[in-house]
Amino acid sequence: MVVLQDRHFRSLWYVGSLNELCRRMELLVLSWLILQTTNSPFQLGLVLVFNHLPRLLISPFAGVIADRISRKRILVAAQTVNSATAAVILALIMTEQIVSWHVFVAVALHGTTKALEDPARRTAILDIVGSGRLVNALSLDTMSNTVGKMAGPLMFGVLVDTTGNTGAYIFILILHLLTLAAVLTRVHIPPVQQALVREPVWRSLGAAVEFARHDRMLVGMLYVTIVMNAMAFPAQQFIPAIGRDHLLVGATLVGLLAAAEGLGQMAGAFLMAVTRNLRRHGLVFAIGSVVVLLIGICFVWSPWYGLTFALLTIGGIGQAGFGTMQSTITMLAAPPAMRGRMVGLMSVCIGAGTPLGTLEIGALAVVFGTQASISANAILGLVLMAPALLFTPLLWRPTTTPAASPRG
After folding, report:
1. Per residue in 31-87, pLDDT tens?
2. Phi/psi of residue 65, each to 5°?
3. What is the distance between the alpha carbons of residues 14 and 12, in angstroms, rounded to a whole number?
4. Confidence at 196, pLDDT banded by 50, 70, 90
5. Phi, psi of 403, rounded to the nearest 5 degrees
6. Minimal CB count within 10 Å: which of 72, 202, 330, 331?
7. By percentage, how much of the chain surpasses pLDDT 90?
8. How many angstroms separate the CA atoms of 7 and 186, rounded?
9. Is 276 exposed, middle or buried, given 0-12, 13-18 or 19+ CB atoms closer than 10 A?
10. Who's near 110: CB < 8 A, 6+ residues apart?
11. How far is CA 407 from CA 67, 74, 195, 314, 339, in A?
12. Helix ranges (DSSP H) in 69-200
């Protein structure tokens, strides 16, 4: 993997791995805390709702910011807020004063920093490696995220069962501080390469929306992004409830179950990382989306832990195709001066879909049960995705970068 020979990409890759490990572990610890104290699938869903709402509100501005100011400063600011938030939550846990709204505020702050960080980090990858190595670099980035998605839940289970929520959160705070130190001392990102255009923010955002509106590949990708984040991915938030209440296992095995999707994502990302000259990005994106939805229909009904683990692993392979190609299409189909804003627009679609889908699953789970609500959502997702597959060029057109770069 030649891209790993670039030390600047390698440093950003290491930091991304550490950050994702911490993020996944922290979200699962807070979700488990809510499930323990409330026994409410609706409140469990609210953890993910508050975590993703900031994407909808902040992501458009985050994309503009990533196109205009130092991306390293954005990463430093995000990690500083994450560290401070973890310190406060740890103090509340240690003094036994933590309640649900503290958790919701904390995950909302995490969502805010994630919304600011994503456009900066992903466009920085393109700045470092160039468009020719972008698919390989993003596949490796997906692999680093997946390491966190696997290791975070595993550490959650072991630490919660052996040291309790306090011990787990001490470890989380240490990880946050290590990530902040790594960003400060190891990461180097080239300056933003574009003309210094200082137009109003809403005009900049309007230019990105207008460009996307006239590119059917981007329209299809953004539409599927909304569908998947509303109908498929919220199911992940309810894995603790499935494990505890349906499969009757404790925190360690719940953590292992939550890591299964990460194992599948690692396998899928590795295959794409070593694939040369992959141009049918939309086809891989669509296939991955369909796989995730099909797994969402059936994994919740599995009566055996091993089968549930295997199904979630297969779903993770689909997620690798979806996630890697989502970022690839977003950046390659946009002109260089608009890439940050386009990633921000993609984050808006994620932020719009996830809270709606999670609220729906949580509300239906109260009446019909968690399993039925997750399956119904996934079936509806397959129906809603059909127009994108039929009427946009996702399945057949290679992604190409515009020859001319608009300045707006």
Report:
1. 999 999 899 999 999 999 999 888 778 876 776 777 777 788 889 999 999 999 999
2. -60, -45
3. 6
4. very low
5. -65, -40
6. 202
7. 49
8. 10
9. exposed
10. 23, 26, 27, 51, 82, 85
11. 11, 23, 8, 42, 12
12. 71-94, 100-129, 134-186
Q: Residue 208, Cα to own-chain centre: how many angstroms? A: 22
Other CB atoms closer than 10 Å to residue 318's CB: what's the count?
26
State the CB neighbour count (10 A cutoff) for residue 116: 25
Indicate if the pLDDT at residue 407 is higher than 50.
Answer: no
Angstrom distances, CA of residue 266 to CA of 42, 117, 133, 218, 315: 30, 22, 19, 26, 11
Residue-level pLDDT at 72: 86
CA distance 95 to 104: 18
Helix ranges (H only) for 299-405 are 305-332, 339-368, 370-391
- Which pTM does this prediction carry? 0.79
How high is the pLDDT of residue 242? 95
The CATH class given to the 2-189+201-395 domain equals mainly alpha
Contacts of 55 (CB under 8 A, 6+ apart): 111, 114, 115, 347, 348, 350, 351, 354
- Give the three-class secondary structure for 25: helix
Compute the mean pLDDT over every residue in the chain, rounded to the nearest whole number.
Answer: 86
* Radius of gyration over every alpha carbon of the chain, rounded to an integer in angstroms: 20
Please report, as a single letter, which amino acid is at residue 225: T
Cα–Cα distance measured from residue 70 to residue 112, given in angstroms and rounded to the nearest whole number: 18
Determine how many CB atoms are found less than 10 A away from the CB of residue 280.
Answer: 16
Amino acid at site 355: P
DSSP assignment of 124-139 equals HHHHHH-GGGHHHHHH
Q: What is the dihedral of CA 287, 313, 104, 201, to 10 degrees?
A: -30
The residue type at 361: I
pLDDT exceeds 80 at position 9: yes
d(CA 270, CA 245): 34
Dihedral angle at the C-alpha atoms of 291, 346, 359, 247, nearest 10 degrees? 30
> Does position 195 have pLDDT exceeding 50, yes or no?
no
Burial class (CB in 10 A: 0-12, 13-18, 19+), 283: middle
Q: Angle at which helices 7-38 and 251-273 pack, to 10 degrees?
A: 150
In the chain, what are the domain boundaries?
A: 2-189+201-395
Residue for token pair 């006239």: 214
